[in-house]
Amino acid sequence: MNSRKQLIAGNWKMFMNTQQAREFALDFQGRVADVTDKEIVICAPFTALHVLKEEWEEGIIHIGAQDVFYQKEGAYTGEISPAMLVDLACTYVIIGHSERRGYLKENDELIAQKIKAALENNLKPILCVGENLSQREDGKALSFVRSQVEKDLSELSSSDIGKIVIAYEPVWAIGTGKTASPQDAQEMCAAIRSTLAGIAGAAANNIQILYGGSVKADNIKELTKKKDIDGALVGGASLDPKQFADLIHNA
Ligand SMILES: O=C(CO)COP(=O)(O)O
To answer: For residue 75, how far is its CA from the centre of ligand 1 (angstroms)?
Structure first.
């Protein structure tokens, strides 16, 4: 038996200005007010976080950011510290998304530092891992993702590893309408769990592992039915309150 609750997180990426965020916030909260068996998170752009704090701070919807820096404060132009996110009522933060690894050249060492800093400030990291298409076609997906997990968690104690969330997001499935098959997604999430067990022991059993990549209201159920898939990290389908609420209800 495990104590894993389903977690459905939206990643708004670089969408939603403050007015759109407010309209979403007001509409969405009523649509999911009945959801008690799942955790719901919206990871908004930094510029919209204060709006979600104003609308949701007392509610059931958790607020998250999409990145964080690893220093407490200082001369780091353009960066945002973990404490600044806590000040904006964030409890989650996405770290190591493939778009940042790709466009911003973030490497495993930097990602490991960010995870450690987030945990020191009681922010729950959602660590994103996943292979690209050529790694999948070459049969290297499992070994690549396993090594990402090991490197990105290398700075952490076993008890800290127990506090994180992992999102398996195959790069080729993001924003493409191509979802990994439930079998392939399950195989990878099980491999991630066994890697976690290797480094953190029994804590691995309670770590939420999400799938991400073209998740929609009509394909979520077949994914979350799988034993090691504990929810989803959702991009495009989290931008519309009705669509995202339907997805959560179907999960
Ligand atoms: O990258 C993702 C979430 O972090 C997935 O995006 P899509 O759901 O738009 O494919």
So the answer is: 32
Q: Cβ(247) to ligand 1 under 6 A?
A: no
pTM exceeds 0.95: yes
- 120 in catalytic set: no
> Mind listing the pLDDT tens digit for each residue in 72-81?
999 999 999 9
What is the predicted ipTM? 0.99
**60-64 contacts at long range (C-beta below 8 A, 24 or more positions apart):** 60/32, 60/33, 60/35, 60/36, 61/28, 61/29, 61/32, 62/91, 62/92, 63/88, 63/89, 63/90, 63/91, 63/92, 64/9, 64/90, 64/91, 64/92, 64/93, 64/94, 64/126
Q: Which domain holds residue 168?
A: 6-250
The answer to whether position 1 is within a domain reads no
**Total domains, the chain:** 1
